[in-house]
Every structure is written in structure tokens, then in C-alpha cells.
Amino acid sequence: MYNALSSLGAGGLATPWYANATAAAGYVFMAVLCIIGGIIVSKIGVRASLLISSTGDIIYAGSLYLNSKNGTQWFLILGSIVSGMTDGLMYAVEGPIITSYPEPDRRGRMLALWVFMRNAAPVIGGAIIFALNSKTDSSGGVSLQTYLVIIGIMCAGPFIALLLSHPAKVQRKDGVPIVFRKTGWAQTLQEWWNVVTSRNILLLCPLFFTSWFYGSYIGTLQTQYFNVRTRALCAFAIPWGDILGGFMIGYFLDNKRLSVKQRARMSFIGLMVLNLALWVWTAVVTKQLEDAKPVIDWTSPEFGRTFTLFLLFDLATMATQTSLFWIISHMSNDFIVLSYMTGTLRGVECAGQAVAYGIKSSDTTDWLSIGLNVGLIVFSLPFAWIVIRKIGVSKFEEINLGLGNAEKESDVQSENEKEQTYA
After folding, report:
1. For residue 140, pLDDT beyond 70
2. Which InterPro entries is this protein grouped with (predicted)?
């Protein structure tokens, strides 16, 4: 539901600048909680973490409602910060769930299913938003009823979180148990530090940072140039791009006709080329919009090329993020270690989003955002390639801390199977 509101541009408000400023504040707190969230997960468990993390977005949606109705800006800042903190914890717990619960040979498909589940709700929320705003053919904010319906759906989240199985009770088809270790504070902090400062994670951080950097700019374009009902249509239709991107890359990464090495390299090269090509297209579209300054309706001639661009950005970004989780899943099979790794992934992503939304919190030139996005992608490529070229070629120096002998033996067996696959 949070994604459904985000798909409206500026959370459905009439102007993007203040919404972008509050989003930047939220992402700062989100980045911190993502990175340290694995420590919290290791202490309170997965269900309690999900329960807590599913409450913050309700407060954020309520703050959007009050700001739209009464202009209550201080609560919008508070709601964004609370949402950022709880979402940071959510990212720290969802990553290890989706990378450790599935068997290795089904991980790509399960990542794709996760993407579908994440975006099925925005599709439903987007359909509701579209139905409530389809007749508003002027620019401005969405109707107040939109927020009330979304808040009502969000309130089911904490109860649904209680249905998750504990890692120790999950029965995988390969018979390998999921290890959820309990450690003292000193060992926990030492392990966390070893993971977040490991060489492979640090090399991937520039790509983590830029992977969602585009969102503030695209959301601002929607708010500036699309009318309300067209933004509502985007909220319904654009999540399908996420779903398609997740399934396309997920099934490709599980394709056994290609070696692991080929899958890793082909997906990385293809996705980076696609991302850079989209920014070239964005530069062209931006120049056209700046010159014409239209208010775009779905009947406008400008709608097709701008809407398609937004849809492909979501497809490319979700495919990129899914591949990043797949890469990390090759680096460890320890639930707690994976929570530290995926938390770092999402934390660095959020730091990038905080910077991106901070830039668009005022009416800065669009070309600054375009130049930064292209520059960050190009900068990240050589560092990420150092890690990508290891997959399927040499054994990763996996960080599996505190595993018992049974798990270590299963790791050795799994590595032998990997080496046969590589051969």
C-alpha cells in the first residue's frame, strides 16, 4: 500500500517539494535501521520484527491524509521518520527470509514470487486509487477518500505478520535446516561488523547506492506534468512493471541451461545496459517536457512515451534489485548473516534515496538528477564487476558464522554440487 501511494508521485499531494523533503528525512532513518536492523532481528526474532515493522506505514499514510486535509506538515515529517525506521527493520528481516527460506535451485523463482507479492498489493491499491480519482482531470492532490481506504487496508498488516513460520520450523525440500542462531551481544556486534565491512559487500555498495536513486526524479516528473487521474492510472499500472521485471530475471537466474557464471554475467551486463539506455531516453523526454510544459492526460499525445518510460524504469529497477539479492544469496547460507547483508543492501539503497529526495526537495534543475544517476551507475560498474566475475568461477569466501558440523557438512556438499554445475 505504501508503494501504491508512492506510485502517485509525492504521495498523492499537490506539489512534490515538501513531500520529497519529508521522504529524504525518512530515508535517512531507514538507512540506519536497515544496516543495524539485523541485530534487532537476531534478538527479537522474525515475527516480532515483522509485527513492529508493519505499523509505521499506517502512521505515514495518516500523516499524508492530515496534510492533504489540514496542511499539518509537522505530522508529515514525523510520519515519514516513523515509517522510515519501521521500514528499515522490515528490509532487514524480509531479505534473509526470501534468500534463506527457498532452496538454492528455486531461489530465483521465489525472489520473483516475492516481487509479485510486494507489488500485488500496490496493484490492488492502485486500482482503488484509480477508481476514486479517475474523473479528476486536473492537476493537484488526490481525493481524501483515497487515503482512508489505503489506511484501512494497511491496518491488516500487523495481523498478517503473525502468520509467518519461524525459521526453525521451515521444512525445505533439500532437507537443509535454516539456522537461526542466538548469540551474546559481544559476538553479535563482532559478527555484524565483520559482515558489513567485508570486501565483497563494500565493493557492491556503489551499486546498492544507485539502484533506487531514480525514484525521486521520476515521481517529481509525474507530479509536475501528469494530472490527477493519470497519476492514479500510474499507481495502478506501473507496479506491473515491477512484477514483470521480477519474474523475468527470477526465471532467468534459475535457468539450468546456462551455467551460474553465464547467468550472473549476462544478467548484470544486460541490466546495466538497459538502465543506461533508459536514462538516455529520459534526457530526451525531459527536454521535450521542459519545452512544452504540458499537463498530461492519458488522452494527451505525450502520455505514451512518458508512461512507457516510467513503466520500464520500474521493470529495470526491480530486476536489478532481484539480481542483487540473488548475488548476496551466494555469499552465505546463515540466516543472521544474510540479515546483516541484505540489511546493508537496503540501507545503502536508502542512503541513496535520501540523497536523491534531498536533491528534489527544492526546484533544482532536472539535469542535475539525470547527470547524477548516469554518473553513479557508471562509477559503480567496475566495483560490482569484481564481485560478479567470481560467481560460478571461484568459490566465494562465504561468511557462515557459528554453524554446527552438520550445517558445515551440508555446505561442503552444496559446494561440491555447485562445482559440478560450474564444470
Report:
1. no
2. MFS, MFS_trans_sf, UNC-93-like_regulator
Task: Give the integer Cα–Cα distance in Å for 291 and 231.
Answer: 21
Confidence of residue 17 (pLDDT cuts 50, 70, 90): low
Domain boundaries, the chain: 10-422
Looking at domain 10-422, its CATH class is mainly alpha
How far apart (Å, rounded) are the C-alpha atoms in residues 13 and 132? Answer: 15
Residue where the block lists cell 499537490: 14
Contact 32, 88 (CB under 8 A): yes
